[in-house]
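Handover notes (outgoing to incoming on-call)

Open items:
1. Potassium transporter Kef: sequence verified, structure written out, both below. Nothing else pending on this one.
2. Nothing else urgent.
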Amino acid sequence: MEYSFLLFAFICGLSVKLIGIPPLVGYLLAGFILHAVGFNATEELTTIANLGITIMLFTIGLKLNIRDLGRREVWANSLLHTTAWVALCSSILYGAAVVISYLTELSIASALLIAFALSFSSTVCVVKVLEESGESKTRHGKIAIGVLVMQDIFAVVFMVVATGKIPSVYALLLLLLIPLMPVFYRIINKSGHGELLPLTGFIFALGGYHLFEAVNIKGDLGALLAGLLLARHGKAVELAKSLMSFKDLFLIGFFLSIGLTALPDTPMLLTGLALCLLLPLKFAMFYFLFMALRLRARTAFLSSLVLGNYSEFGLIVGALAVSLGMLDANWLVIIAISVSTSFVFTSIAYKSSHQQYNRFKESLKRFEKTERLNEDIYPVMTNAQFLVIGMGRVGIGAFTSLSNLAKDVVWGMDADRAKINSLKHQGHNVVLGDGEDIDLWENLDMSQVRLILLALPSIEDAINVTSQLKQAKYEGKIAAIARYQDEVDILLDNGVDKVFNFFTDAGLGFAEESLSYIGDHPAAK
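Potassium transporter Kef structure tokens:
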């Protein structure tokens, strides 16, 4: 049965990918079709889905800086948005109940519960979309993830209050995990770089989950905090990457299970779709709150766009309310329709997010505050002639080689603040910046830059950066890395001047360096 589900999910995922739509839309569609022909979610599929969420929360923790949650634009926006949304959305729902016969039995308490369930943004959808676009470590990506974590905390608090289930007195023993951190760090060090590393990640993620469940605290919070405790380890990023494919595979079960939730009748379907008409309101509330907190228009726009959906946590909150007799069971089906439909909207809308911002940026920037946050002040590059964008392993290698030849006219750029701070501490010429930010390029002095090297993880990123540079009237040359042969022509067709095949050119460089080490060359024979 599960194999048939996965096979159909693969067919639907591949089909929508071929027409330029993210695969997760196909997985949702597969769930709806399977349910329409009589299938239901199985216990095994639910287990796979839950495992995917647990691993995802653990990897979020691994990449999360606790200081990000303390930023005003994160905690203040989360609190204000949830409060304002619940007040406004519940008023709209209760007002609609007066004129729509299907909703006549909706009470104020029910309207408040539904509004609260719809106040959350989807952790699964947002993280998936950000990772697919390579933007989880950008300014807007970190803000969005910070808001999600705050919302998850609100949900946990609600469930504790609603069930009257308070944490066990043994919960205090969880504090003993802190002095055990050196032991956990040693375990990660000894796990190496092979198959034992992702297994170690599974042990920590599931261990955190079950420890918290054992003391009457939501296990998902335990997985998140387990990742957070290990985030400062030197192998945290490697550990997160080793779990990426497992997480993506298990989350297919989650998207399928959403579609398999229930089969709605026509009024339920129409009500669920009607609730999606409130998504632009959700986006607008996020955007104007971000602007009031002095974010740049682009950061506010992208953060709001990716957060403009409904959450799987809404289903959890709704299911709890139904089980406690606080909400009619039909509303769980309606919320499921709204949640899954919102995933589709976000996945499709965010695919062209940078183009949308470029189109509307003049209107959006009218709401910017004169005084900027320190994180949003544009950087300055002095005498830059060569710029490396993306300071991962390949980028740092290129940056170091160029610096040895051209010294101080070489600069590096990355969207990861922690990485940039570390490189600055080492004395390198680097700036914090998102290469896909058209405002950044329009405010940087690029007149002397002769060559830009794109050392980015995906060709989509390289294509987007190239497009922004062309729009900003950059006249120098652009070079990029391709990991596969079929990507070379795609990059060249999209404006890149020179493309290096990562594996072919790495092998050539390795051979040349090795021969120079022994002072020999085949041509000399």
